[in-house]
Design brief:
The complex is a heterodimer of chains A (about 375) and B (about 290).
Chain A (H helix, E strand, L loop, with lengths): L33 E10 L2 E11 L4 E5 L6 H9 L6 E6 L2 E2 L11 E3 L11 H11 L4 H14 L15 H13 L5 E5 L7 H18 L2 E6 L2 H7 L2 E6 L2 E6 L1 H6 L4 H6 L4 E11 L2 E6 L2 E6 L9 E6 L5 E3 L7 E13 L3 E9 L2 E8 L11 E7 L4 E3 L2
Parallel strand pairs in A: 3-8, 3-9, 6-7, 7-8
Antiparallel strand pairs in A: 1-2, 1-4, 4-5, 9-10, 11-12, 11-14, 12-13, 14-20, 15-19, 16-17, 16-19, 17-18
Chain B lengths: L8 H8 L6 H26 L2 H12 L2 H34 L2 H12 L6 H12 L4 H8 L13 H25 L3 H9 L4 H29 L3 H6 L7 H10 L4 H31 L5
Helix pairs in contact in B: 2-13, 3-13, 4-8, 4-10, 6-8, 8-10, 9-10, 10-13, 12-13
Classes of the chains: A alpha+beta (about 375), B mainly alpha (about 290).
């Protein structure tokens, strides 16, 4: 990170530059960590954010993912300083920021509706945080040029926002948030207003910028694909609480709760009863079938557990026995053609259905009414508590 | 299949062309305002003679010392009133935008309700307050701030106070509308990106309300240059505004051609200012600020 553009041999944005002296020495190392301890926000009696604990590392891309009303945006607004913290504490690089107004917290910020100033052209929009910090004009020129090249808007510096597309406006907002090289950038559903195709391209771009600049990003979204694609870690929020924190693979493949399992995509969740446990493997009876599953927390015999397995982990075959495999017979009830995949609804017991996603690879396709056998690996199966 | 369309033809015409809805108002305006105005100019100026003679009369009239003075006074007072409205009105409009609903209603009530009373009544009320033995002077004398009563009436101060008061709501409501249209996330973004309150106000809020400032100022200025009652009642003998001079020419000296010339100046000034106003609101739409 040392000596990256546009730092070489210049002095500019206060203490940030000390950290990036050419010899790599740093007087006040600022890593860009964010810590939330027991953070709570109440509106009347209701706790919209309920005792949230989080620890975001420097340089990490961290997402707060949840449905609307889950408290993710309120949490971000408390970090930014726009909402008061009722209980708990927020610290940045180990320093409590409770008493600081937003303008003194030094974050970069990107909003869902872009909030690009309509009366300023692209250059002046991006220069805004630098002008607010009374940076010298020649430094501003250089830094704005650098930020605009990062978001590929070099040619549009003198355009006004009304002359730009939504995607371009959001690039301006991103350039504006990183131009003063904050260690931490907060993003509040920045791609929510863009159409689906553009969204994916922008995800890749934001991730690339974050990787190159090395900043910490705290990213709020309700789009699970977005969170999975971009994040180093994801915190899934529901009703003001954090349900699970983990890498995209962890939260997707080993959800801690049925909420997380359902929120991160299609999930089969079957109610059952534990009939045996060996170490971290539980044997669970669902209707007349016996299914083996991993357990995060030890399960007792007789306990109710929900069996979880992703549709794409289940294979359809006549007979494919193997070790550590669950095998369940069923009858095809539904076939949906979704393009790249074919989604089957398979009844394994009266009114108990399993969804199976098969690649559209041209092999034989079971038809409605045919009898099939389902296989999936024990490692892909989780016995969820509650 | 083909149900008979029994709708009367007039109502279908209205549905097809909504501009018919404003036809009665336009007709009234034409008969009650445009026609008399045109008639006045045509009747009085045709008496004068040829076009050259009209131009001569026109330039003679507006270069008369009294008319010149009145024009300067008019524009000067209008300018001062506009500035006063802006200075007092901006903070009030700003407050209206920030405050919660209860207080908003009360303040708005205080701004609007007095305007259900006639201008004359309100002007007399100010005269009671501002006179030599008025409440304000009594207070100033009693508190020992002044030795002798301050002249607040029958001079420019009186006119300024009276006109500023009467024209204030136009400024406040115009500014309020402009401020209302500002997405609060702009200020939020400014603060998040390191701008102090003052910097955010100076570089984001003020520029975004600028079209409102210009619109409000033009409305107040246009109304102020044609003002008659308040300056007539509250001004002194030297504070003659152009509308008062027109009235004197029509009523006292019976010099209608002179009145027509002066009216023409007033109408032209108003039209020019209105054209500017139109441009500003157009620009505002271009900038994406729907009022």
């Amino acid at each position: 990170m040392v000596g990256r553009e546009p730092h070489q041999g210049q002095c500019g944005v206060g203490q940030m530059d000390r950290r990036l002296k050419p010899d790599g020495s740093s007087l006040t190392p600022r890593k860009g960590t964010v810590d939330l301890v027991g953070v709570t926000k109440r509106y009347g009696e209701e706790r919209v954010v309920d005792r949230v604990n989080l620890s975001v590392s420097g340089g990490e891309f961290f997402s707060l993912l949840g449905p609307s009303g889950s408290g993710k945006t309120t949490t971000l607004m408390m970090i930014a300083g726009f909402a008061d913290v009722d209980e708990g504490g927020i610290s940045v690089d180990g320093v409590d920021v409770a008493g600081l107004p937003p303008q003194r917290r030094g974050f970069g910020m990107v909003f869902q509706n872009y909030a690009v100033f309509p009366h300023l052209d692209v250059f002046e929009n991006v220069a805004f945080p630098l002008r607010a910090r009374h940076i010298a004009t020649d430094v501003i020129e250089r830094k704005v040029g650098w930020a605009l090249s990062l978001v590929h808007l070099d040619d549009l510096a003198r355009r006004y926002p009304r002359q730009l597309s939504g995607g371009q406006q959001q690039r301006v907002a991103i350039a504006r948030a990183i131009v003063f090289e904050p260690r931490i950038v907060l993003m509040d559903e920045p791609l929510g207003a863009l159409d689906k195709n553009l969204r994916y391209a922008m995800q890749v771009e934001i991730k690339e910028i974050q990787r190159r600049v090395g900043m910490t990003v705290v990213y709020v979204t309700h789009d699970q694909e977005e969170a999975l694609n971009m994040s180093d870690r994801i915190a899934i929020m529901n009703r003001g609480r954090i349900e699970q924190v983990g890498t995209p693979a962890e939260v997707y493949e080993a959800p801690a709760t049925t909420f997380v399992a359902r929120f991160l995509g299609e999930a089969n969740i079957l109610d059952g009863e534990v009939v045996a446990t060996v170490q971290d493997v539980a044997t669970v009876r669902v209707s007349t079938h016996v299914i083996e599953a991993r357990t995060a927390r030890p399960a007792g015999v007789g306990e109710r557990r929900a069996i979880f397995v992703r549709p794409e982990k289940v294979l359809i075959g006549r007979d494919r026995p193997g070790l550590a495999t669950n095998t369940v017979p069923g009858i095809v009830r539904r076939v949906s053609f979704l393009g790249n995949i074919i989604r089957y609804g398979i009844e394994i017991a009266p009114s108990i259905m399993i969804t199976v996603d098969a690649q559209n690879a041209g092999s034989e396709r079971p038809t409605v009414g045919s009898e099939v056998t389902l296989h999936w690996h024990r490692a892909d199966t989780v016995a969820l508590a509650g | 299949m083909t149900r008979p369309l029994a709708r009367p033809s007039t109502s279908t015409a209205i549905w097809r062309d909504p501009s018919l809805l404003i036809a009665p108002a336009l007709a009234f305006l034409a008969v009650g305002f445009v026609l008399p105005l045109v008639w006045f100019f045509v009747a009085t100026l045709s008496d004068v003679g040829s076009a050259a003679e009209i131009v001569a009369l026109f330039s003679d009239t507006i270069t008369l010392r009294a008319v010149e003075t009145a024009l300067v006074t008019t524009f000067w007072i209008a300018l001062l009133v506009t500035l006063a409205c802006l200075l007092v009105g901006y903070p009030i409009a700003y407050y209206l935008n920030l405050t919660e609903r209860g207080r908003f209603v009360i303040v708005l009530f205080c701004i609007i309700v007095p305007y259900f009373t006639s201008v004359i009544v309100r002007t007399y009320a100010w005269m009671v307050l501002l006179g030599r033995n008025g409440i304000i002077n009594q207070f100033l004398l009693a508190s020992g701030l002044v030795e002798a009563p301050v002249a607040l009436l029958y001079n420019k101060i009186g006119i300024l106070i009276g006109m500023t008061y009467v024209l204030m709501p136009y400024m406040i409501l115009t500014l309020y509308a402009a401020m209302r249209a500002i997405d609060p996330s702009y200020l939020r973004a400014a603060h998040a990106l390191g701008a102090s309150r003052l910097f955010a106000f100076r570089h984001v809020y003020l520029p975004l309300t600028l079209h409102g400032v210009i619109s409000g100022a033009l409305i107040v200025f246009i109304l102020a240059i044609g003002f008659f009652v308040t300056p007539a009642l509250m001004g002194g003998p030297s504070d003659v505004m152009i509308a008062m001079l027109i009235e004197r020419s029509v009523e006292i000296t019976l010099d209608w051609p002179a009145a027509a010339s002066m009216s023409l100046v007033l109408v032209l000034a108003t039209l020019v200012l209105y054209a500017i106003y139109y441009r500003v609101t157009d620009v505002q739409r271009m900038m994406g600020h729907e009022p």
